[in-house]
């Protein structure tokens, strides 16, 4: 159940029909000036490779704080290290039977569960994750969790799971400041192979949705349109493509 390699910018296909974005890597994750965020990135790199033996890590923060990107980066790092893993975005899987989704995962080196807050009010998911947590811990495997809420703030009916979630390391990730978002746009453009003028980046930042995922989606759309039209990315071109 490890991810298969892919090229050309297409997502990596995993079991369960789940995919990883090729650009969800540690290299592409903007290292903000926030000290906690920088600490977490270094810790997760060691966690992905298996050099950090911590049994469980819990990341939480509001939308746009980079949790999904980091969870997928850990999976990419695990694959590079030859480790078995599974990425589970509960936003896509929550309506499925948890026993079916989680069956056999305790034989993997690493399990990453995203959108954990969605198990609120779902006792069957809470019970299944509780048992998975115990099996992974007992067998020396690792678990990485991402959520919008801290372990204490989750509204869970299963007290034993709430207790388990507080056993491992917990980190709150903070969204990027506007200055950091501007730098992140410019960094991401360079990684895509072009330079984004600062005035264009400012224009995008002040008109696009402020969520970093949406900002990067705008950048990707502009890159594709620029290549197709063989035009530089200027403010008039941004207006034309993004209808700003």
Automatic annotation (TrEMBL):
InterPro entries: Chromosome_initiator_DnaA-like, DnaA_dom, Hda, Hda_lid, P-loop_NTPase. Transmembrane segments: none annotated. It comes from the Bacteria. Residues 178-242 form the Hda lid domain. Residues 24-171 form the Chromosomal replication initiator protein DnaA ATPAse domain. Keywords: DNA replication. The keyword tRNA processing does not apply. Belongs to the DnaA family. This is DnaA regulatory inactivator Hda.
